[in-house]
Amino acid sequence: MTLSIAHLGPPGTYAEQAALAYLDLHSTPSTTLRPYASIARTIQSTAQGETHLTIAPIENSIEGSVATTLDTLWQCSDLQIRQALVLPIRHVLIAQTPNLQKIKAVYSHPQALGQCQRWLATNLPQTTAIATNSTTEALQYVQADPSAAAISSERAAQLYELPIVQRTIQDHPDNCTRFWVINQQKTADLPPVIETDQTYTSLAFSLPANQPGALLKTLQIFAERSINLSRIESRPSRRSMGDYVFFIDAEISAEQTTFHSALEQLQASTEVLKSFGSYPLVTIS
Amino acid sequence: MTLSIAHLGPPGTYAEQAALAYLDLHSTPSTTLRPYASIARTIQSTAQGETHLTIAPIENSIEGSVATTLDTLWQCSDLQIRQALVLPIRHVLIAQTPNLQKIKAVYSHPQALGQCQRWLATNLPQTTAIATNSTTEALQYVQADPSAAAISSERAAQLYELPIVQRTIQDHPDNCTRFWVINQQKTADLPPVIETDQTYTSLAFSLPANQPGALLKTLQIFAERSINLSRIESRPSRRSMGDYVFFIDAEISAEQTTFHSALEQLQASTEVLKSFGSYPLVTIS
């Protein structure tokens, strides 16, 4: 079987780097990397069986959640998280000209623009920041226009043979992004999970409408069992203002009895409940 | 005293509309609306005493949280929320040409682009979506380029005398945005608060590093007192991955004794705790 891995394209994105890092951890003989034009499409491709795995960014240490990953996971069915990867993010400025004064526009993914905003304000105050679908897509503007610059990775600059004007332009030195490796629950023959001592279980739920205290009730289920939550994120349910889908990362394995009983009680007090399973977190250096 | 209200500019943004709606609720004799180039700058202007009030978007019913509002509130000191306003959002497509096939690029604020993504994919599949700092800033591209379109409001089209090609292009009919009216805690002589039967109290906190169970402990403080939380949002603390600032909206008034005792206990189990006070929510039709 040739293992196919979906990631945000074109080649050279941080998602592709995360996919390569994931493959490095295994010795998978035969693999195809499948770049897609949006994060939503990567996850959908795995949900629809076009690909075996998706590597999708879930949050950045500076800019926070990647909303499209959460929203798409909620919309798809029968997906589970297999592994979490934390990848260091080192942005470079790519442009045809080495002269910063000649740069009029900077292109990149909104997350990358956000992660370099202080550097941009100090070093390129005269430029307009323009959002692209991926850090690599930004490079096409640099190829076409000598007054354009892009924020992308060292690898992307090499891949597209474009000059690096400045390295390490992210505002925070320990900028990193957490990725989830996602697969269909029923897919067999996947690379083994890399075990670490950090195991998480993630789930998402919506609450029955017009029931005050409903969120409190669900949080009590975790509190009573001393299950620590490392993160709670809310996303709009898109039904009405004040109606949310909650995403929770719990510091527990789904195999523990405590978690089983929590899940049972959650079934009763939530409207829709999705468990994405347990997964160990690996940090790439 | 001339009351000055900061909002995201240029004139014609939804934030300006929220400011006008807020003024409509009062009969304030003398007011200046002060447009700023970014949401961060509006809130900073009030924190620094340049303006009396800021009207800042906090979340949209479709696209979710406005991260920059949360991050800036956390960075500033001594600010409080005076009122919440929910404003219906009705997007229109503005372009020089009525022929959709001639449109090559659509400009708008990323939130507005997100709120119309299905409409764009169906009606303008050939166009590139380009992010701007505000929905009104997008109009300058329409003025300059006959193949450009903007997503903005009916009011903005009138203000800038540009043609509306299509009305009600948002994907969800009940699209609305919640705004917070923010002032310095010490500012006197502000317009009276509009009382309603929906009162919220908002606060934010960071947790001491490397203390497993710290989030659990804070949630228990609310659970034990049956204080319902309508929303929990996490933002990266920007110190390290997995380290967050949590924003909570509680369905209680800060004047209640139950809340006082919760706040006291929170002081002990959080690292930094900021309370933004209590405020009633008004829905604009």
Automatic annotation (TrEMBL), chains A, B:
Its EC number is 4.2.1.51. It is an enzyme of class 4 (lyase). Residues 4-184 form the Prephenate dehydratase domain. Pathway: Amino-acid biosynthesis; L-phenylalanine biosynthesis; phenylpyruvate from prephenate: step 1/1. SUPFAM superfamilies: ACT-like (SSF55021), Periplasmic binding protein-like II (SSF53850). One of its GO terms (cellular component) is cytoplasm. Pfam families: ACT, PDT. Residues 203-280 form the ACT domain. This is Prephenate dehydratase. The record marks T177 as: Essential for prephenate dehydratase activity. NCBIfam families: PRK11898.1. GO terms for molecular function: prephenate dehydratase activity.
